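Translate sequence into structure tokens.
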Amino acid sequence: VQLQASGGGLVQPGESLRLSCEVLGRTSSSYAMTWFRQAPGKEREFVAGIKWSGGSSVHADSVKGRFTISKESAKKMVFLQMNSLRPEDTAVYYCAARTSWYAGRWSDGIMNYWGKGTQVTVSS
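Result follows.
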């Protein structure tokens, strides 16, 4: 499985961005698709996750109400709609996949596949 993230850029506080992740290769309906991010000098952190089948999702508290993860299974695409962006959202955003949903605390150590990141910078 290969993951290709895109859509990052430079925006001002309060603006929006939509990240996309193209999923290449064979996947299973059991997969979980996620977004993580890593800010300079900080550890990589979970942002949001969605079940490949069914669409149940989970979002980190820091982005709830502002970010929304979604998918288009037929096109094998995963999206992260980011609204009301803040300077603290500045980070490299990664698309990652796990072969099954996880009911515990999401961390980068449990993911099976990673894409290259896309930079998001929020600055005035």
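Note: The two ends are 37 Å apart (CA to CA).
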